Amino acid sequence: VQLQACGGGLVQAGDSLRLSCAASGRGFSNYIMGWFRQVPGREREFVASISERGGRTYYADSIEGRFTISRDNAKKMLYLQMNSLKSEDTAVYYCASSQYYRGSEIRGYDYWGQGTLVTVSS
Fold this sequence. Notes:
Shape: globular
Helix content: under 10%
Low-confidence stretches: none
Order of helices and strands: EEEEEEEEEEE
Number of helices: 0
């Protein structure tokens, strides 16, 4: 599966933003999907993941209930709704897919999108 993330931009602290990830290829509904983010000079970190049918979601503790991951399998789309954004949310956000792995480790994900930059000004 090929992934392309979009929707990033420059926003102010407290604003909301929705990221999208378009998938191409077969079998999107068979993949566990995740969002990760990376600040330059730091390791990429887990943000959220969602099960194949969307029934189960998992979030990093740092998100504190501000983000919501969702998917539309008919459209082959993954989303990340980000509310109450903080300056520390500034990062490049990546979507990723996994056939079997359900955790938060980067190495468990097989395919990655190119990333979209989110900048939150304080």
